[in-house]
Amino acid sequence: MPQTAYFYEDLAVGDTFETRGRTITESHLVTHAGNTGDMNELQMNAAFAEKTRFGERAVHAPLTYSMMEGLITSDFRHEDSNICYYGLDKMRIPHPTFIGDTISVSRKIIDTEDRDDGGIVTFRDEVTTEEGKVVLVCETLEYIRTRD
Fold first, then answer.
1. Do 58 and 96 touch, CB atoms closer than 8 A?
2. pLDDT given at position 13
3. Which end of the chain, N or C, is less packed with Cβ atoms under 10 Å?
4. Strand, helix or coil at 121?
5. Of 29, 83, 77, 37, the residue nearest 56 (C-alpha)
6. Among candidates 140, 137, 60, 51, which has minimal Cα distance to 101?
7. What residue ranges of the chain have pLDDT lower than 50?
8. Terminal alpha carbon distance of the chain
9. Helix, strand or coil for residue 31?
């Protein structure tokens, strides 16, 4: 859990945040495939993937998204201020993620909507590799409370 709790009144359109990085491993890919039953050849068959336009196994896009959420949860969401995850809009995968890529998340607040006990904050989240390649872009909505 992050040390700083960001309450609704602390946040404004235009604010930005960065997470630390996390390296995607073979174990992440295999565990994700086993948990979901998604055994697509592009992820699970190295000989097949080598012959594709990617030249190697690409990581499942939902795995990249899940790891993004984990980074956000460990580096931004705080139990004192976060009411709940509220939604996901406009996800795109402009480039594949590969085993060995280290990803991090850049967040920018693009909208806020007041509620009685806080508000909905919409973030534009970009997941990038250590080389700066954007591999996932989405809008994440979070319900964040005001201070007591």
1. yes
2. 98
3. C
4. strand
5. 29
6. 60
7. none
8. 20
9. helix
